[in-house]
Amino acid sequence: MKKTPLALLLTLGLLQTPLAAFAATAPLDLVGPVSDYKIYVTENIEELVSHTQKFTDAVKKGDIATAKKLYAPTRVYYESVEPIAELFSDLDASIDSRVDDHEQGVTAEDFTGFHRLEYALFSQNTTKDQGPIADKLMSDVKDLEKRVADLTFPPEKVVGGAAALLEEVAATKISGEEDRYS
């Protein structure tokens, strides 16, 4: 079951139905679409784990060219599951926070994850001292996989998360703010 995020939004009816209408939808009517969405998320998290492993291995080996090449394709899998990943705010912050989220900027200890590695690779053109950040990213992605496997997908969270993602796309992703260094 390979559906694009757009196809899933259509499946959930988000692009055709006002969000308020979901409040009146019988829970049983959402079982199929939510089940399809969980399968989609699970498959994409498996791909995220696999691609993140290759990406972080390249970072730890000091292979800047390969790490740069793998960065964007790996991020696609995180972005595809972000509405669910955001349910785990600790992991989302660790995996996906941007430099603007940290008062001390790039020197902040808690500035980790994809965007910290993106900064090192594309802005500084280095992998020096990035091994621990790569290890933490890999650990966090595996933790996300475990947490999602145990998660019951509440329809209101799925719909709310998808709506929030649409707003984020309009606000930051289209402008390039999301991956500004790469």
UniProtKB/TrEMBL annotation:
Keywords: Signal. It is found in: Cell envelope. Pfam families: Peptidase_M75. Residues 35-182 form the Imelysin-like domain. The keyword Signal applies. The keyword Nucleotidyltransferase does not apply. Residues 1-23 form the signal peptide. GO terms for cellular component: cell envelope. Belongs to the EfeM/EfeO family. This is Imelysin-like domain-containing protein. It comes from Pseudomonas amygdali pv. tabaci (Pseudomonas syringae pv. tabaci).
